[in-house]
Amino acid sequence: ILNVEQSPQSLHVQEGDSTNFTCSFPSSNFYALHWYRWETAKSPEALFVMTLNGDEKKKGRISATLNTKEGYSYLYIKGSQPEDSATYLCAFPNAGNNRKLIWGLGTSLAVNP
Amino acid sequence: AAGVIQSPRHLIKEKRETATLKCYPIPRHDTVYWYQQGPGQDPQFLISFYEKMQSDKGSIPDRFSAQQFSDYHSELNMSSLELGDSALYFCASSLRGAGTKNEQYFGPGTRLTVT
Prior knowledge:
The complex is a heterodimer. Chain A is an all-beta fold. Helix content of chain A is 0%, strand content 52%. Chain A is built from no helices and eleven strands. In chain A, the strands form two sheets. In chain A, strands 2, 4, 5, 9, 10 and 11 form a six-stranded mixed sheet that branches. In chain A, strands 1-3-8-7-6 form a five-stranded antiparallel sheet, with no helix packed on it. In chain A, a hairpin with a 2-residue loop joins strand 6 and strand 7. The radius of gyration of chain A is 14 Å and the shape is globular. In chain B, the strands form two sheets. In chain B, strands 2, 4, 5, 6, 9, 10 and 11 form a seven-stranded mixed sheet that branches. In chain B, strands 1-3-8-7 form a four-stranded antiparallel sheet, with no helix packed on it. Chain B is an all-beta fold. The termini of chain B are far apart. Chain B is 0% helix and 50% strand. Chains A and B meet through strand 4, strand 5 and strand 9 of A and strand 5, strand 9 and strand 10 of B.
């Protein structure tokens, strides 16, 4: 059974703080790792698709790194803003033919002004 | 670029009524997923279809059914609606297959309110 775990479950930071959270996934049969940002009552937004060990991707103040050998990815937010408040989800396609995404439960980030 | 289209965007039904939600995937995407997000809750995976066949089943109640049609659009049919069915229902589509990363693109959601 594949398991994708995210930590912490929730996070409260002050505006301007930098923060990071973790996604752990099975390191065997790695295919790709997805990060999504999901604001309440809005559609989830795809942030990154990461495929190579050592990958580092950046989108504005948000960046992510990938370690496929040890099975983890970090998402960093630099200088958090209130509009960054959302749930950040990672997802891992399984190794089967259907490539179903196995979702983590997310890290809920609240940025206080 | 074309995105995932969901209709209707808002729906109000009474208890025990039936509702049908529609999802039109991104052109050439072959996989559709349905998710339910209740107020203040994490999104829950309901069901998915690949090439018009049910692919995976999550926490979809027996009162709900879904299908994917020949044009790849999907419909989620919900019967005997209960108050607890009030939620945002998201549809996502992806292109599944060798060489793809199965990135899911989400529609804007349908907000269902059961009174």
